[in-house]
Amino acid sequence: MRTDEGVLVASPPPNQSLPDALEQAAAELHEVLERATSTHLHYVRQGAGDRTWARINDAVSGEIRARRTDVSLYAAGLLVEQLRAEAADARRRFGDVDMAGQPVLPHPPSEEPAEVAAWWAGLSEADRDEVILRETPWVGRADGLPVDVRHRANLDVLHAEIERRSHLLDPESEEPHDQATEEEKRDLRGLLKLRRFFTEEVKGVSVPVADRRLYLLDARAYPLRCAFVLGDLEAADNVVVHVPGATTTVDLRLFRESRWLCALRDEAGRLTDDPTSTAVMGWFGYHAPYDIAVRRALGDSGVKVLVPGEASDERYAREAAPTLARCLDGVRTLVGPDTRLVASGHSYGASCLGLALQTSTAADALMVAGCPGLFANDLASMHLEPGQLWAAVAPADVVALLGLFGGDPLKIPGIKLISPFARTVSYYAGVAPCCARRSGTSSTSAPAPPRSMRSRRSPSP
After folding, report:
1. How far apart, in whole angstroms, are the C-alpha atoms of residue 109 and residue 7?
2. What residue spans carry the Low complexity bias annotation (predicted)?
3. For the chain, which terminal residue's Cβ has fewer other Cβ atoms within 10 angstroms, N or C?
4. Angle at which helices 113-121 and 315-335 pack, to 10 degrees?
């Protein structure tokens, strides 16, 4: 919603009616009073056991204080009843207004993407516009809403967040000034890069501005979280949701990851003879570990050694997994059952996906690179069919061999290994596992591998 200054602030549905707000206030006050009464009675009982002539003044003053508290608690109890009476009257007289006196907005029965999508489909155009206007940040985060709806809302949030933080900008350089904290600088630079990404052509990004969408923007806390889509997600035959790994922030990785994902999409278009057949999403929707290893002094010797950094902590993956699972479910809701949905993760991002897929059945396949573990030892626990997990491991990459999170992923039965090296290759009848490069042969010299991408040119094997 917008403040009087025009700044967008988070105010997620359900947007509460006045009667509901009064009933909630009465219930919360009643709960507090019960706890206060119980605590007060403990005080009274303790005082009753301490009444002696030696401490007569304490006993008298304590008795007076207890009686006053009794009266106050009784009066507060009457307030609960008065609030409930007001709630009943408000429901009868004006039950369709909120706390600001505006008509109550419709809201979905839950945050589940399928229910959000069904709720949105049942709204009138006027109600949709009102929801976007008054609940803009929530709309931009709501899995299950159409891509263009979220994009429209998130662009509004983007411009409002830059304006809200404009006091941190140097007016001449348009860079964060020195008084800003490091976290403020990173997030502000990230917001500025997002604005550029959705208004200008960026070197190495082959997808034009018109075909880019800001699928997620969450600026409520550090670090800034976002997700961008390249291509028409809702019309594509193949969708890839990619999760980057440690050290990822919007400021540091937006342009690099978008270039990589453009290359992936371009290659998929070459394979299918249709550049529009694949859409890709870069998901920066979690607090990624900020370092892989750090130097620390060894005792009092002054000698510094490398020790594992934040990337060895599974907490970041466990915090990310529920949000990532709901994102995947939301994408599946939008694209339907026939679209090929591939989850892709690099390093720590792959571990996040391993957890997310244990509570989501949305993905058809999983592609990981440099993965330190998937929190799983079999495909079934990640709701994957046999032959639908691919992994790339570089020869010198020890991360994938550490098995920090649930064991070595290369030992999972049914996993398919692919080369991490780019090279000139041929492919099986227009398909390639998880859109990744690998050495191959012609379709006449060897049987085709399991399907990983739908092709309009030729049916998948």
Report:
1. 28
2. 437-446
3. C
4. 40
Count CB atoms within 10 A of the CB of residue 376.
21
End-to-end CA distance of the chain: 50
The CA-atom distances, in angstroms, between 99 and each of 17, 109, 354 are 6, 20, 43
CA neighbor of 368 nearest in space, from 400, 406, 397, 339: 400
Query: What region does 345 belong to: left with phi over 0, alpha with psi -120 to 50, or beta?
Result: beta
- 109-163 per-position pLDDT tens digit: 899 999 999 999 999 999 999 899 989 999 999 999 999 999 999 999 999 999 9
**Greatest CA separation found in the chain?**
106
Q: If you count them, how many residues does the chain have?
A: 461
Radius of gyration of the chain (CA): 28
Residue of 438, 425, 436, 430 lying closest to 461 (CA atoms): 430
DSSP string, 137-163: HHHHH-BTB-HHHHHHHHHHHHHHHHH
| DSSP secondary structure, 284-333, as one string | E-S---S-SEEEEE-TTS--EEEEE-GGG-THHHHHHHHHHHHHHHHHHH
Cα 160–248–393 angle (5° rounding)? 150
Average pLDDT over residues 151-178: 92
Q: What is the pTM of this model?
A: 0.76
- Of the candidates 290, 343, 341, 292, the residue with the CA atom closest to the CA atom of residue 321: 343
Q: What is the pLDDT of residues 294-304, one digit of tens each?
A: 667 666 777 77
CB 428 within 8 A of CB 418: no
Question: How far apart are alpha carbons 72 and 331 in whole angstroms?
Answer: 54
| Lookup result for tokens 């050495």 | 439
Look up residue 346 and give its amino acid.
H
Which two structure tokens, joined as six digits, stand for 145? 């809403």
| Residue 42 CA, distance from chain mean position | 46
> pLDDT tier at 434 (50, 70, 90 boundaries)?
very low
The residue type at 68 = R
